[in-house]
Design brief:
Layout: H1 3-18, E1 20-25, E2 46-47, E3 51-52, H2 55-63, E4 68-73, H3 78-87, E5 98-103, H4 117-122, H5 125-131, E6 135-140, E7 143-145, H6 149-158, E8 163-171, H7 172-175, E9 179-183, E10 189-194, E11 208-219, H8 220-231, H9 240-248, E12 254-258, E13 270-272, H10 276-287, E14 313-315, E15 317-318, E16 321-322, E17 324-326, E18 329-330, E19 335-337, E20 340-342, E21 345-346, E22 351-352, E23 357-359, E24 362-363, E25 368-369, E26 374-376, E27 378-380, E28 385-386, E29 391-392, H11 396-402, E30 404-405, E31 411-413
Parallel strand pairs: 1-4, 1-6, 4-5, 8-12, 14-19, 17-20, 18-21, 19-22, 20-23, 21-24, 22-25, 23-26, 24-27, 25-28, 26-29, 27-31
Antiparallel strand pairs: 2-3, 6-11, 7-13, 8-11, 9-10, 9-11, 15-16, 30-31
Amino acid sequence: MSGSNHHKQEQNIGHLTRNTIALILAGGRGSRLVNMTDWRAKPAVPFGGKFRIIDFPLSNCVNSGIRKIGILTQYKADSLIRHIQQGWGFMRGEFGEYVDLMPAQQRHGEDSWYKGTADAIYQNIDILRTRKPKHILILAGDHIYKMDYGAMLADHIEKNADLTIGCLEVSLEEATAFGVMDVDSNRRVKAFIEKPEHPPVMPGRTDTALASMGIYIFNADFLFEQLQKDADTVGSTNDFGKDIIPAVIDKYIVNAYPFLDLQSGEQSYWRDVGTIDAYWSANMELIGVNPGMNLYDNTWPIWTHQEQTPPAKFVFDDDDRRGLAVDSMVSGGCVISGAQVKHSLLFSNVRVNSYTNVQDSIILPQVNIGRHCRITKAIIEKGCDIPEGTIIGEDRAEDERRFHVSHGGVVLVTPDMLGQKLHYVR
């Protein structure tokens, strides 16, 4: 592509993103994360040492040039709201930029809660109409990935689509847990099947299916029309995957957009961190030498709110009392005082005291770990004060008696389990 053509394409994508509103569905209960969502919505769960899960789709929007963003909140949203107010207030209203919080507020009918993903958008349809977007990008607020939505918008326009669905290439075995697209050779969607027992394969492939990422681009007027139709349909569950998408496939142009690395053509990094095991694994991946999610990529920064903390500190250098961390990520404000941390991820303001060993673990903010502890393959929730001599991750039966142990053997420890009634976890 010549330089002038490339510049014109960038200008065109910039025009598309400026006339797009992104809506992030962030009201989910996240019950598969068990006690981690006792006091916060899933998108507000900390991730990666200093971030929250919702920072990833939000950063994707900003990095893609989409700066009109609505966040639809519902379940235990206080922690999420505070994070957005503290970390995402840099948009310039005078340029038409915003990150708006859109709670369930009985705008249509007397039902206070959003009844489904489509109903969440429908309940705000009057607000959206007044803002006159050309396109609406709908995102889940609880996945970890980097994606240029501008490229997906350009594909949507090029294909003259009414709806474009972001897709992952997954194995047929994995596909049974997703909504799966049956597509033709031009990526036109012929059918959308929720959690199929026998998933349809991609054209030209024998072992791969296209699974929905829960990312949708709609032409705005088309979306408003379909939301109204769905709201008027008796018995609808008001859900995009179950109701809206199957109803429009035959009459309108619905396209699949595979989420692939532009250079290699391979499936790009995407993680659903909806279970304790998946959450632990995705955080552990970050510690690797060449992780699929590179947090040190200056070309695609992940934005967040981070409180001001002093540098991490490692103290004592005696043979039996040496403060060190190996193959680990350690955030600001941490003090490793005569303790050893291996292959672990420490969030901000964690203190690990003398003669303690922490391995293969995730330690959330403001945790204090006493002396002579051994902690292995654990997630220690925010605000825990681990008593001296505590052993976690060595005796499953003992761990199950006191804490939550996942199917994969990850031990989740919360203040409540320790008898420390903080009543909330921000």
